[in-house]
Amino acid sequence: MLTEYKDVFLEELEEQLQVMDDCILELEREGGRAEIVQNLFRAAHTLKGSSAAMGFEEMKRLTHQMEHLLDQVRSGAKEVTTAMADLLFKALDTLKLMKSDIEQQDHCTVSIGVILQELEAFAVEKPELEPSLQKKAEDALDQGLSVYWLSISLAPDCVIQGARAYVIRTFLEEWGEVMEMSPDPDELGDELVKDLRLSILYAGSQEQQELQAALEGLVDVAAAAVKPYQPEESGKNRAREDLPEEPHSQLLEPAGTAEELKREEPPSADKAKTATVRVSVERLDHLMNLVGELVIDQTRIHQIERRQRALLRDESVGDLGHVSDHLTRIISELQDSVMKARMLPIEQLFNRFPRMIRDLSRHLGKEVDLVMEGKDTELDRTLIEEIADPLIHLLRNAVDHGLEEPERRARAGKPEQGTLTIRAAHEDNQVVICVEDDGAGIDPEQVKASALRKGIIQPEEAAAMTDKEAVELIFRPGFSTAQAVSDISGRGVGMDIVRSHIEKLNGLIDIRTRLGEGTIFKIRLPLTLAIITGLMVKTSGQTLIVPMSNIVEIVRVTGKDVENVRGRPVLVFREQVLPVVGITNLSVQTLQQSGRPVPVLIVGYAEKRLALAVDELIGNQEIVVKSLGSYVGKVEGIAGATILGDGRVALILEIAALFNQAGGFRY
Amino acid sequence: MQADINEQYVEFGVDDEQYAIRIQEIHEIIKMQEITQLPNVKAYVKGVINLRGKIIPVLSLRSFFGLEDQPHTKSSRIIVVHHTEDTVGIMVDRVSKVTTFSDIQPPPERVGGVEGNFFVGIGISQGGLVGILKLDEVLLREE
User: Fold this and answer.
1) Is A322 designated active site?
2) Which chain B residue shows the shortest CA-CA distance from A652?
3) The pLDDT of residue B79 is above 90
């Protein structure tokens, strides 16, 4: 398979699956509004087409069946029910499984037999009946017989379809009466019909299950669906004049569907949307790199221009200056634009939540109203991917542990339906995401007790803890308050993973909770991982970059300010005792021996602080973060590297490493 | 990877010895640049350089072979090779020429004090014996 097509296909698949997800949720909430059904139908239709073109036969069949069911909803033959929504969701989940299969191994191994059968059973349609046949069916009912619509799929490897159909008819006729059969076994020639399905109107005395079991026991029958015939429904069907005569013949797609689709497409709605082009991330990254190089070259041009100015007194030098200045402005604008092109609205991520919350709340028997605010808040796409897992975990926790059962809420005088709010917004140069529930809140005493039981803290420690500190215990490894481990949350990997994940993104997480009123988790993240503001410092002969987001304060101290506590250098700063560290021990020694004030950075990582001794501050600037590549891999103490204006490479300090630094850097 | 006498090689020198790398594996050869040192890495990884906007690691064959580091000279070069997904620079004392070998012998157990499995073979040319490096082994060496 050509990978370029595969990528395009997968992108489309992703998009359409999202559309389906949204639509089914809406469908369930608002019933079969024509527009929603139409959108859903269109998504299924699109996927049917593209999966067929890509040769994913199973996916084609599944989407075809979904389309078939939706067509019935669209035409008014079927009402939207919760059961139908569940079934559609199930089909959607199967499609998602297929997608991951295709991503990983280029073909589907997902079995679709069961879901196809369920969809089929749901969609069993009553073909329009001749008035005489209808009369016959009604007569049979009057006689106390049961009348069923049977839908039988033959196994795909069946090579004698005509004969099988004939056997089925004979079999049924032994038991009761076959009033109508389509296609007629006598008309089935030697030519094989793909996905042949037989549609039979049958009258007999058997129970539905009995009949189904018997049919499924026959040779070459892949699936059988039995639906009781309901006389009043036949009238409805008659109104549908466009119904194809043989709705189960899978040779062609239902006549008119394609044209109908086109006709019903809102004529100008799509044009009103902003025109967009799909661009692969690789290209954007490449563009970003090129811009980075431009910036570097521009700095050089600027330097050359200044040197020329000192040497030459020519008009052309002035011109060069103008051009160079203009270039600088354009490049910085270009840099901004490329940065923005990498940003996506957080909607992409938020869209996954309604479905998840719906399933979860139904599973747990809770009522949850999910409110999402600030969907259009933009952030770097890598960040969106990285923040997904922690957010999902927080939301699941909120539904599982935060929000109470409806009865408990009612007793506490709260509305039975809990509210879960997820809110995103820009604040300064950061993105703030809040997950808020109006549930029971976190009980610090309970957390403490649990932590004691698990040996995470000692009794003395617990006694000295403030409520806030106690609540923060939930971030400790090995902590989980759930009494019983449910499959929703609480597998022992919990909040500690959430926190470490967020810290890895240079973010911070904070909890506010009030017992009985609810909990708010507030996450702060940088706008992008690709560009950070860094402070360039010189220490131990190296130029290093310290991420600005980790710098709390810069102070100047002399050697006298540094004290020794148990042989370790510390700095008393604003009534806090901070350990003093350096990139190498050399810089700490230099500081201790210094008679004149030297700069010290107070750096923070989560709630921890320390003092970092440096030799010289150079200045701050926006830097493009680059990785060191897989050959060297992860280097202890280094978060990445960047290229400076003069073309040299400077390393970016990994703040976390300073806190567990054993022996400093070894060069 | 089998050594092939029909292929072209780039011959270079480290200390008094001559070595070679298959020309197909070489991306380019550049002059010495300022190298930014990396802390906490293997001793022969000298640091990183900026190769037209890309940051690539540089390792020194001298220290790889267990020789003393020496100050760079005018003839010092960095041979940039593509290895799997990565681009890596290899510091050598001098680059001599592009050459072919009239015969290639399997490597002995040791080649001038270096383990034989870092070599594909020993190339025989008019100038003498040349150790042909097996990049897979050199770049994937575990400490």
Assistant:
1) no
2) B38
3) yes
Give A147's strand partners.
Answer: A203
- Supply the pLDDT for residue B2: 55
Q: Is-catalytic flag, A401?
A: no
Q: Do B40 and A635 touch (CB under 8 A)?
A: yes
Instruction: Provide the pLDDT for residue A245.
Output: 41
What pLDDT, on a 0 to 100 scale, did the predictor assign at position A435? Answer: 93
Residues of B in contact with A641 (CB under 8 A): 36, 48, 55
Structure tokens that stand for A86 in this block? 């569940």
Contact list, B88 vs chain A (CB under 8 Å) = 631
- pLDDT of A489: 46
Instruction: Name the catalytic one among A26, A28, A67, A404.
Output: A67
Contacts with A582 from chain B: Cβ below 8 Å: none
The active-site residue, picked from A26, A28, A397, A404, is: A397
C-alpha–C-alpha distance, residues A462 and A496, integer Å: 19
Determine the 3-state secondary structure of A130 from DSSP: coil
The per-residue pLDDT for A130 is 66
Q: Which of A289, A628, A636 has the CB atom closest to B53's CB atom?
A: A289
Q: pLDDT by residue (tens digit) across B8-28?
A: 999 999 988 899 999 999 999
Alpha-carbon Rg for chain A, nearest whole angstrom, is 34
Give the A:B interface size as CB pairs under 8 Å. Answer: 70
**Interface ipTM:** 0.86
Structure tokens at A666: 């070894």
- SS3 state of residue A430: strand
| Total count of residues recorded for chain A | 667
The residues that bridge with B47 in the sheet, in sequence order, are B58
**From the CA of B5, how many Å to the nearest CA of chain A?**
30
Backbone φ/ψ region at A606: left (φ over 0), alpha (ψ -120 to 50), beta: left
Alpha-carbon Rg for chain B, nearest whole angstrom, is 14
Structure tokens at A103: 């991503």
A630 contacts B55? CB cut-off 8 A: no
> Domains in chain A, please, with CATH?
1-123 (1.20.120.160), 124-236 (3.30.70.1110), 282-342 (1.10.287), 345-442+481-526 (3.30.565.10), 531-659 (2.30.30.40)
Interatomic CA distance for residues B67 and B44, integer angstroms: 10
Cβ contacts of A526 within 8 Å, gap of 6 or more: A383, A429, A430, A431, A505, A506, A507, A532, A549
φ/ψ of A187, rounded to 5, equals -90, -15
pLDDT, residue A262, reads 44
Antiparallel, parallel or unpaired: β A531-539 and A430-437: unpaired
Q: What's the fold here for domain B9-139?
A: OB fold (Dihydrolipoamide Acetyltransferase, E2P) (2.40.50)
pLDDT averaged per 10 residues, chain A (length 667): 72 85 82 80 84 82 85 78 82 86 78 80 63 76 80 78 81 81 74 73 81 80 77 45 41 44 44 68 82 76 83 84 89 82 86 88 88 88 84 88 88 90 84 91 87 84 83 79 46 70 80 89 79 83 86 88 84 84 80 85 80 87 78 82 82 81 51
Q: How far apart are CA A8 and CA A28, in angstroms?
A: 30
Task: Establish if A274 touches chain B: CB-CB under 8 angstroms.
Answer: no
Nearest-CA distance B96 → chain A (Å)? 27
Q: Which residues 6+ apart lie within 8 Å of A319 measured at CB?
A: none
Best probe of the B interface among A540, A544, A649, by most B CBs < 10 A, is A649
Q: Going by C-beta distance under 8 Å and a sequence separation of 6 or more, which residues neighbour residue A566?
A: none
Q: Which residues of A touch B50 (CB under 8 A)?
A: 643, 647-649
Phi/psi of residue A429, nearest 5 degrees: -105, 30
Q: Residue A476 corresponds to which tokens in the numbers above?
A: 């400790």
A397: annotated active-site residue: yes
pLDDT score for B4: 64
Three-state secondary-structure class, residue A146: strand
